[in-house]
Amino acid sequence: MSDSNKAAIAAEKEALNLKLPPIVRPPEDIGVDTPTQSKLLNYRRSKEQQKTINQLVIDGAKRNIDRTLSKRIPSSPEPDYPPTMTSEIKKKGFNYIYLKQCVESSPIVPIQQEWLDHMLMLIPESLKEGKNREELLESLIEEVSSDFEKSMKRYLVRSVLVKPPVKWLEDEGGPLPESPVGLDYSNPWHSSYVQTRNQILANLHIVHPTMKMLLDLGYKTFANTVLLDLTGIRAKGPIDCEALKTDLSLQAKKAEEKIMNTWYPKVISLFTKKEALEGIKPEKLDAFYNCVSTLMSNQLKDLLKRTVEGFVKLFDREDQQGLPIFKMELTFDDDKMEFYPTFQDLEDAVLGLVERIAETLQNVQTVPSWLSGTSTPVNLDTELPEHVLQWALDKLKVAIHQNLEGARKHYETYVKKYNWLLDGTAVDLIETFQAEDHTFDEYTEFIEKFFSLASEIMLLPQWVHYPMVRLDCEDLKTGLTNKAKAFANILLNDIASKHRKENESICSEFEAIKEHALKVPETTEEMMDLISYVEKARTVGIRDLILRIQESKRQMSYFLDVFLFPQEDLALNSTVLMWPWKINPIFDENDELIEYAKHKKENELIAKREKLILELEKESRRMEEFAEFAELDRMQQYVTDVRQLQKRIQESEDAVQFINKEEELFKWELTKYPELDKLKVNIEPYQKFFNLVLKWQRTEKRWMDGGFLELNGESMEADVDEFSREIFKTLKFFQMKQKKELQEKRKAAKRRSLGEEKVEEEPKENPTITMCSTVMEQIKTFKVQTHSMTF
């Protein structure tokens, strides 16, 4: 190495030594020997040790440079400098680059593990989570260690070497912090340090030893704690939102009481000591206490803020390890499906907890207020900032809405599938179905749809679990099931009513058969009707009723599974089923009754026939007596007798009709009564003749005994002629009848006395013919008399 180079290196070393200030340790009697002061002294001591290590590294680098320069090989390649550069600049640039390489190759103390730990503590916990968190942390530590090593090398280079004023020399990494300008290290600085320190102690109260102790007390009390224990909420399982609110409110109250019974008395005890206000001038006392209040307020606000942040973090969807599980129910009330508690109630309960946390520690007195004991205490300002509360409320609203989305969709599933049971659709379907004419099987098919729906609802899960909600659906399931069963029961009651009416109809028909079958017939016709009725009942009626009973029995089998019969319906069903066995004895009793009535009616019919024959014989004899009537003065009596006989003939005719009808019912041969027909024919001329004679007698009497002036000759003549003609006809009729009877008698006598000598008998005089002739004469005489009177 040339002498000029050695001289340049020596000059640079001397200039470097002049720029580095001497290391001056602070006096040991500064500050008060407190725990906080001990920590500060340990921190300063570690800093001084680090500086000593760095100085040793610098000295080692200098020695390396000296050894390297003394052993430098002249044949080392030189950099390609610009041709315009002077030889002196080239030498300086080459020397700087070479020396820089030497300094950078010297050993560097690695970053302390304690520093890395502190840096890791500054990273938020949310960033430390994830699948690749270990790899990320290792990569971060390697990056920080590498940057630290590079920074230390740059610091060594700039601390050991002075960069020549050459523009083309590269300098990676940017400038280091500049040293203070204007400081004269050649002058003593201790006096100015003491002066500045005293000014700080007089005005900056935060560095007061008591404030340090207050800060240390707050750090120990609040650093690793929050007002609420939120770690085991999810482990407790499903909980009511009001229960959680009550539980956390009690925790907040107990935590507040604990703070006021532990931390606050310690704070007060700090300021009751004599040395608490040491060095504080009276005029600075208010400012000092304001600083105390500010520090206490900040500590309590930080506690409340961390508590709120911890509570908000519980509802983070990405981290559900601490998420509470709330009990919620799907309820069925007044034909409505609802949540209990509602989403709004749950949200209000959760947001209310934030407000409850914010209400905690709002009545903490300031130290001077407590020391003075005033009646109107002054409290610390511990109210959380509005933006913090609003942030918490907004985050919770979004998180609650997201976490309740699953429960909302489950509710919508119920609404989509079963709301038709509640909105009137089912009622309309049932009313339409009932208005139509449907069979029993169609009813049961429709009913089974509702029962199947009820079974489907009951098989749905009772609890549905979501990250934040355990949804209890039992009440809704029960309500919907009962609703479906109620609709089924409406239809069941409808067909049960029809079934009841059908059974009553069956029983009524059996009762009618019984009543009719056991009724004693009063007439033969009734008896025959009864026989026909019972015969039809035994064949067609009972068969149809048995078919209806079988259908009723089939329906009963269905009802016994799904319907609860009242006691009267059970008795009715039993009666219906027993009728086929009860009706046979009734038919047997009817057979006996019919047999007895038939025998009785036959005897009565025979008696009536015999009685009728006797009656006809009497009437015939009475008819023969009419031929002997010959007294005109008894004509009124004759008319009466004829009428009575006609009445008896009519009665006999009715009796014949009745007897013939009875004979038809008994299927006997009909009896005939020619005597009755003969009587009807023979009595008619007598009735006509007697009435005509009586009418003539009365008319003649009226003409003869009445007023003369009232008579009308023409009408009288016409009436007399009419009477005359009728009498004449009657006379001819009886004469012809008498002649015919005489001929028949002669024929009969001839047949009886065939071969014997005939004796001719003279016909007897007929009284009826005699009366006719007499009346004819009376009419003639009356005509002569009236004719002579008119002239």
TrEMBL record:
The keyword Coiled coil applies. Residues 745-767 are annotated as: Disordered. Keywords: Coiled coil. GO terms for biological process: microtubule-based movement. Residues 599-662 form a coiled coil. One of its GO terms (cellular component) is dynein complex. GO terms for molecular function: dynein intermediate chain binding; dynein light intermediate chain binding. This is Dynein axonemal heavy chain 12. It comes from Equus caballus (Horse).
